[in-house]
Amino acid sequence: MLGVIDLPTYLAGLVLIVLLPGPNSLYVLSVAARRGVRAGYTAAAGVWCGDTVLMTLSAAGVASLLQANAVLFGIVKYAGAGYLTWLAVGMLRAAWGMWRSRKDTAAEEAAEGGSYERPYRRALVISLFNPKAILFFVAFFVQFVDPGYAYPALSFVVLGAFAQLASFLYLTALIFSGTRLADAFRRRKRLSAGATSAAGALFLGFAVKLSLASA
């Protein structure tokens, strides 16, 4: 179908990959839990736009450039790791603010960032500053493209469309799960602080993992 081979295997692998936790999905869940469905979808839109850009760059051959140029790969890698670290520090500071002001709702909202947060922009940057994602899209997609097909770019479009559909369904589930978590967080301030601390720690882990990545 349009140069795509072994579609069932691709879909099975795609489901497993999408379900793996990562900084994008964790950030969307965090935003939905703190600010509701609308903000959650705003963050998800940043993820989808970022992934679309990465898929396009992959099809255009940027992945080969990153693999061949260690300096360029390192620049993008460390910039992404630095941004994830910055987000992690912000989450940990917010959690500390929650612990110190568990009875003060206004202070808690201020600690979480309130209206100053830009979910779409943050999610987009998290997606774009991940050079391993570009390499992944090529390494995974190319296995399911018929080398004899005359229009391989069209095959990439089909594979990308399925990937975005899977991402949409998964992030939608996370967003509505996040709104349920929000109700529990509002009732239990310690739970909210603990969850925010855990998210910050995970983002630090993502930053370390990215900084240690190789092309």
TrEMBL record:
Pfam families for this protein: LysE
Compartments reported by the entry: Cell membrane
Membrane topology: Multi-pass membrane protein
Source superkingdom: Bacteria
InterPro entries hit by this protein: LeuE-type (IPR001123)
Record field: transmembrane: 12-33, 45-66, 78-96, 123-145, 151-179, 191-212
Main location: membrane
Keywords, in A-Z order: Cell membrane, Membrane, Transmembrane, Transmembrane helix
Family matches, as PANTHER family: ARGININE EXPORTER PROTEIN ARGO, LEUCINE EFFLUX PROTEIN
Family to which this protein belongs: Belongs to the Rht family.
Record protein name field: Leucine efflux protein LeuE
Species: Streptomyces justiciae
Gene name, Swiss-Prot/TrEMBL: leuE
